[in-house]
Every structure is written in C-alpha cells, then in structure tokens.
Amino acid sequence: MAEHILEIKNLHTSFRTDAGVVQAVRGISFYVEKGESLGIVGESGCGKSVSMLSIMRLLEDNASLEADVLNFDGQDLLKISGKGMRDIQGNRIGMIFQDPMTSLNPLFTVEEQICSPLMRHQNLKRKEAREKALRLLDAVGIPSPERRLKQYPHELSGGMRQRVMIAIAMCCRPGLLIADEPTTALDVTIQAQILELMAHMKNEFQTSVILITHDLGVISSMCTRVIVMYGGLIMEEGAIEDIFYRTGHPYTAGLLASIPQKSREKLVPIYGTPPDLLNPPAGCPFAARCPHAMKLCAKCQPQFFDLGGGHRSACWLHHPSVKAQKGEVKLG
Ligand code: SF4
C-alpha cells in the first residue's frame, strides 16, 4: 500500500466575523500519497485554499480549526508548537501562491528571499546559500541569474516572479508542495511553461504536490487524482479518469460542462450561486443548483458512496433505493 505523506480526517475551519461564524471547511477527510500529484478543484469560496492554510497553520486570529487527524509525514500537526510549525513551513512543505507579488517581499532582493530559508532551515553559510540560489534560478529557467539575484520583485516580469516563487518553494527540497492557483494570474503561454516547470521540479525532487485550482483543464495535465470541493465539503474524489469519464457527482458534471471544448457549441454555466457558509444548508450544499435534486437532498446531507477503486461521491443518486426508483441517472 502506498505511504501517505499527508492524512486529514474531519477537518473543520471556521471564522468569527461581525456577521456571525463562517463555516469555511465543514468536515473534510483526504490523504496525499508520497510522490503523487493531487488536484483540488472548486469555485472560489468552496474551502480549498482555507483547507491548505489550515494545514500550514497560516490562519488569521479569528479562525478556529478542529480535526480528528492532521498528520504530515508521521508528525501530528495538531500537537506541534509554533516553532515546530515554522520549521515545517517553507522547509518540509513548500507553497506557491497565485500572485507572487503578494507573497514575495517587495522590500527584499531575490537573493535575500531565496537565501534566508536556506540559511535558516539548512544551516547554510551566506556564500553556500548564494551558490545554491544561483543554481536554483538556473534550474527554474531564469536567464542571467547573477543579475536577477540583485533585483527586487517589481523589476521582474509576472512569469519570472512565479519562477522565483517556485525556486523558493523548492529550495529546501520539501516533501510536499502546495500550489494555490499558481498560474491563474499568468497569460496562457507562460501558464504552460510554469506547469511544465512544476512537473519537472516535482520529478527532480520526488515531491508530492497538491495543486489547487478552479480549472479542471490544468488538473488534467498535472494530476493523477482529484478532489472536487463545494460549499466547504468534498463532493467527489477519484482518479483523473473517474472524474472525467465516469463522473459521479452532478456538481463535477457541471464543472466539466463549463470547460471550453471544440466539440461543444456553447459553454453550459452552472446557474445560481454557492451556499452562504454563514448559514450552510442542512442537506446537500449543491441542492439549490442541482438539476437532479430530490426532496431528500434539501433535508439530509448525503454520505459518501463508494464507486470503486478509490472513487467516491457524496450524492444521493448513488443510494440503492434512489437507483431502484430512478435507474442510473445520466449526469451532464
Ligand atoms: Fe443533486 Fe441531490 Fe446529488 Fe446533491 S445529493 S448533487 S442535490 S442529486
């Protein structure tokens, strides 16, 4: 059996606000195998980024986090101290964010920003860290690395800043890389180059990857397994082929129908809006938008139904009594 580098059971994250408590993540469980690339897909506000910030313990003060299990590489992250967590952040778990301008420090040069994690986590002397930084910039395809080391983030193009972020995220050879919408802010040609670079670095360093995106097209080119999130919950999980060709959840079917394809004359949007997580619905969070919703759906939150081979879907359409009444429902 494959070893898990990350294991999460029943994670809840909420935020106290003036309007009430926002239940951003409402009890999700998943794992990441060593060396695999897991995609997490869903609309904005579905809880995918908050789940990752919860794992990294990078939540704001108004947040509260609970979980039955939160294990990273054999370590219980629920019991670890603030200092222990800082040793993991940027060292054993690397992160790449959507907008490098907000995650790179505008006041420091590229050299400072790559060298400081190397000196802090790997105990390298300044000269050794600088040499390693040069090799890393070269490895992520940045020309004239000597010159770039002396520059500030605003002096670099968007694609180059994202390459610097990848160099920083990978500099300590992390066991897990979390990439949150890493290509959304880039134009299409640069997007493809950055995804290719991430795949190359993953293979080079044998890093496990969690790729968060709203774009199923990006997931299909990078990942072997996918989790689909909606309304703070996991709707469906499975191998990429299951999600694309044996879709088990109407929300996933809606996402797939909204991908531009040559064979499709027009895009089919998912009408309606996601649920209000200040007051989440008692039943299926997708019920108000689902073309297959039944009376039961609004009242009871569906359990997961095992569709075989690690494929599971939280939808009442898979319940044997519903199937007996309706037969197999064609999704999408
Ligand atoms: Fe639609 Fe009901 Fe399935 Fe939810 S449980 S996705 S509302 S059919």
SSE topology sketch:
Elements: E1 4-17, E2 20-33, E3 37-41, H1 48-56, E4 63-66, E5 69-72, E6 75-76, H2 82-88, E7 93-96, H3 100-103, H4 110-122, H5 126-139, H6 145-149, H7 158-170, E8 176-180, H8 188-205, E9 208-213, H9 216-222, E10 225-230, E11 233-239, H10 240-245, H11 250-257, H12 295-299, E12 305-308, E13 311-313, H13 320-326
Parallel strand pairs: 3-9, 3-10, 7-8, 8-9
Antiparallel strand pairs: 1-2, 1-4, 1-5, 5-6, 10-11, 11-13, 12-13
Helix pairs in contact: 4-5, 5-7, 7-8
This protein binds iron/sulfur cluster.
Task: Describe this protein's structure.
The protein is α/β, with parallel strands linked by helices. Helices cover 35% and strands 23% of the residues. The strands form two sheets. The protein has an eight-stranded mixed sheet with strand order 7-8-9-3-10-11-13-12, with helices on both faces. Strands 1, 2, 4, 5 and 6 form a five-stranded antiparallel sheet that branches. A hairpin with a 2-residue loop joins strand 1 (4-17) and strand 2. Iron/sulfur cluster (SF4) binds next to loops.
Any descriptors?
single chain, 332 residues, alpha/beta, 8-stranded mixed sheet, 5-stranded antiparallel sheet, 13 helices, 13 strands, globular, binds iron/sulfur cluster
Describe the structure concisely.
With 332 residues, the protein is an alpha/beta fold. It has 13 helices and 13 strands. The longest helix has 18 residues, at 188-205.
